[in-house]
Amino acid sequence: MAHIPLNFPFLAAALLVGVSLYIIIFKKNLIKLIMGITMMASGVNLFLVALGYRAGGGAPIYTGTPEETMVLPVPQALTLTSIVINVAVLALMLTMAIHIYRHTGSLDSKKSRKLKG
Amino acid sequence: MAALITHSPILIIAIPLAAAFLTPLIGMASKKARNALVVVSLTFVVFLVFALARDVVINGIHVYTLGAASPDLSIPTGFMVPVRIILEVDGMSAFFGIIWAIVSLAAAIYSLSHIASETGQTRFYTLLLLMVTGGFGMMFTGDLFNLFVFLEIASISGGALIAFRTKFADTQEGGFKYIVVSAIAGLMVLFATGILYAQYNSLNIAFLAQAIQDNYTALDTIALALLLIAFAMKTGMVPLHLWFPDAYSVAPASITGMLVITSHACMYAAFRVCFTLYGGMPDAPVVGWILIVIGLLTMFVGVTMAVFQKDVMRFMSYHAISQLGYMWLGVGVGLAVLGNPALVNPGGWGREAVSGGIFHILNHAMYKPLLFFTGGALFHYTGTRDLTKMGGLAHKMKWTTILYIIGTLSISGIPPLNGFSSKILIYESVYQFHPILTITGIVVSILTLASFTKAFHSAFMGAELPEYKGVKEVPRSMLIAMGILAAGIVFITLFPSLIVDSTIHPAADALIHQETYITAVMGVAP
């Protein structure tokens, strides 16, 4: 791991968030939109985990481990919470997409749109 | 009693949460017991919030440390930084807590008959109580990550409640838009939290505020922008308001009333970020100006869009957007002059501007849910939200008509109703900042009155229509819920100076004086 530049994960996170923003703004299909949001969540989660990484660090467990650098445990806890929340959001969005498809017969946000003005 | 008040911050969050998961169990046994559980737990929460607010006004900020030997031990012995989860209730949090408690109780009572014909009612109440938990959590937490978690709890349950009536296609679309916007806003908040954590290694708002004050970096500006855009998007600020009427108009009316307050909760978070977290920043006038300009836009665009609406709930949603502009305006002026102690200390007009904005939140939280509830009452019997198809309903629904008139007079700022007392406070104080702000405010107010009069005329006045022969007054629980809010309006109308002195000024001072929030957790610097 040591030969990967440390800011590499941050670039990956930025790329994920950027691509997902493009998808969310320009794609008309609801499933693609949902995928975009999930990608954005992955980007943010990657950012959080990368924050806590320390070069050459081990798992942050105090008992019975040799003295060494440890990665920060807090961002990992945050990421875990965030993943759980995003699963709930994803499930809810998919449920609504199914209902929209049942009612309108289309997942294209231009065709299934009822509310205007 | 003293122990109850000491532990009340966590109890206010925990009681609705526990009740939410008890509801399905008790709902299996008896419907009546389930409804009683919902109403009793929320009534108890109202009582706790009032007790806590009284304590906060008398004794100052209430800090509650979870898992500590004693709840006020915010920094563990031997540490320099707060490491535990901290709930911090100051005047501002307590003020929003009161609003949220009253409106959620009214919404629960309203739902008892409003959704009585729907399937899956038990799940409805579970989600409603979860939404209450999320809202209180956002208002009371002293921790940036918990703010994100509670924001998501409120958003997920709110989105599910909007789409609750799955038999209609439009509810699904409104709910989908709401949850997409909430998910994006939530991720932006999380990203900003990550940026701040990376620099200062803490999530505690008081600690971060102190660190930002000492050392303001470019990354902090990025985090501020992300947080502000996220919360502004969730409140329905104008360039990002397109989802707002869609989601609000299709939800069950009781939920629309609660969504208004979740929008205020996000506003609370935005104020907390601007004033407390970034209170010492050099850019405060710039951010203040941005809030003022966007506030004016929000007021104006909201009301002009409302004039054309035919759908009664959509029409009221655009008015809700427009009213939010007044609050951004008042508080934005306060933020712009935050650096000038003469203006924000007692007696200065900067403090009055903030107070006016906050007072308008209280008034809006009373009359807007009331108006949405009357809109729901119309839909309950006519089965349509289209104003052009309604008419002559005043003959059958006398109480609803009276309550609608109270709400209308209040939202248009007709003296002496409560909407007037907060608007005059805003007008007088922002006039000294720039006269054009007051002029815009008055014009928007006149347009509001005009469009509400038109809606009143088309729904309630005129001869009885043959198709609404069978319409009768709405059930008692809906009337009680509307009565609670109308009683709030009448109370504020009768005693405006009492309300301002006892709740509004403590809330405004809590916003303006960042240092009291910080020292309550960090202790006085040696």
How are the elements arranged and paired?
The complex is a heterodimer of chains A (about 120) and B (about 525).
Chain A: H1 8-26, H2 30-52, H3 73-104
Chain B: H1 2-6, H2 8-29, H3 31-59, E1 62-65, E2 86-89, H4 91-114, H5 121-140, H6 144-162, H7 169-200, H8 205-214, H9 218-235, H10 243-250, H11 253-277, H12 284-307, H13 312-336, H14 341-344, H15 349-382, H16 398-411, H17 418-431, H18 435-460, H19 476-494, H20 496-512, H21 514-522
Helix pairs in contact in B: 2-3, 2-5, 3-4, 4-5, 4-11, 4-15, 4-19, 4-20, 5-6, 5-11, 6-7, 6-11, 7-9, 7-10, 8-21, 9-11, 10-11, 10-13, 11-13, 11-15, 12-13, 12-18, 13-15, 13-17, 13-18, 15-16, 15-17, 15-19, 15-20, 16-18, 16-19, 17-18
What do these coordinates show?
The complex is a heterodimer of chains A (117) and B (526). Chain A is mostly helical and 117 residues long. Chain A has one domain (8-56, 67-104): Helix Hairpins (Orthogonal Bundle). Chain A contains three helices and no strands. Chain A has helices at residues 8-26, 30-52, 73-104. Chain A is elongated. The mean pLDDT of chain A is 86. Chain B is mainly alpha-helical and 526 residues long. Chain B has a domain at 283-494. In chain B, 76% of the residues lie in helices and 2% in strands. Chain B has helices at 2-6, 8-29, 31-59, 91-114, 121-140, 144-162, 169-200, 205-214, 218-235, 243-250, 253-277, 284-307, 312-336, 341-344, 349-382, 398-411, 418-431, 435-460, 476-494, 496-512, 514-522, and strands at 62-65, 86-89. A two-stranded antiparallel sheet of chain B has the order 1-2. In chain B, helix 4 runs antiparallel to helix 11, helix 12 packs parallel to helix 18 and helix 16 (398-411) runs parallel beside helix 19 (476-494). The mean pLDDT of chain B is 90.
